[in-house]
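Quick one, C-alpha cells below. Sequence please?
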C-alpha cells in the first residue's frame, strides 16, 4: 500500500472518530486498523465539511440508526450567560497605581578650595543615587590624581555625602563633599 493511501486512510479514520464524538456515535475502528486495511481510494467516502447555522456546527454525515443518540438540531453549546451570572452589585476597586520614579540629573556648583576646583553632576532615580560624574576636579600634585575617582566610588557606595575622607587629602575630600551636596540638592536629595 502506498504511503499516500495510508495517510489518507489515517486521516479518514481520525475524522470519523472526531465526528462520532460530536454526534455521540460509538467509536469506529481504530485509525491504525483503517490504515492497514485494503480499501481502494474509490471505496473511501470523503467526510463532508461542517455547515454552520444559528452559531452551532452540524455535519451532514449519516449516522448509524442504532447508535444515534443526538441529532444535529439538539446538539447545541450551552448558553454561557445562563450558566453562571456574575453578581451585579459587587463594586470593583481599581488597583492602586504606584508612581513611577523618573531619573533626574543635576550639576552642582563649582566649589573652590585650597588646591583647585571640584564640580560634580549627579543622576538619581527616586531616592537612589545612580551616577556621579566629575565635571571638573583639580588637585595639587601627581600623587593626588586618583583622589577624585576614589571619592566618587565612596560617595556612590554611601549613596550620599556620608563617606570617609581619603587619608592625606582632607581638603579635597571636603570640597568633593560640598560639590556633591550642591548637586544632590538639584535632584531633591
Amino acid at each position: 500500500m502506498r504511503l499516500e493511501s495510508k495517510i489518507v486512510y489515517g486521516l479518514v479514520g481520525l475524522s470519523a472518530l472526531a465526528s462520532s464524538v460530536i454526534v455521540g456515535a460509538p467509536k469506529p475502528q481504530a485509525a491504525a486498523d483503517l490504515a492497514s486495511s485494503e480499501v481502494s481510494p474509490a471505496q473511501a467516502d470523503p467526510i463532508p465539511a461542517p455547515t454552520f447555522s444559528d452559531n452551532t456546527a452540524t455535519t451532514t454525515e449519516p449516522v448509524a440508526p442504532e447508535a444515534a443518540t443526538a441529532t444535529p438540531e439538539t446538539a447545541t453549546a450551552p448558553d454561557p450567560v445562563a450558566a453562571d451570572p456574575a453578581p451585579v452589585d459587587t463594586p470593583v476597586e481599581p488597583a492602586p497605581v504606584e508612581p513611577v520614579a523618573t531619573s533626574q540629573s543635576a550639576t552642582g556648583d563649582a566649589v573652590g578650595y585650597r588646591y583647585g576646583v571640584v564640580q560634580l553632576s549627579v543622576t538619581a532615580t527616586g531616592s537612589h543615587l545612580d551616577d556621579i560624574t566629575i565635571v571638573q576636579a583639580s588637585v595639587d600634585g601627581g600623587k593626588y590624581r586618583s583622589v577624585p575617582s576614589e571619592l566618587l566610588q565612596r560617595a556612590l557606595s554611601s549613596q550620599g555625602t556620608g563617606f570617609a575622607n581619603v587619608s592625606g587629602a582632607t581638603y579635597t575630600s571636603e570640597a568633593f563633599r560640598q560639590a556633591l551636596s550642591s548637586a544632590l540638592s538639584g535632584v531633591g536629595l
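The chain has two domains: 3-77, 103-186. The mean pLDDT is 74.
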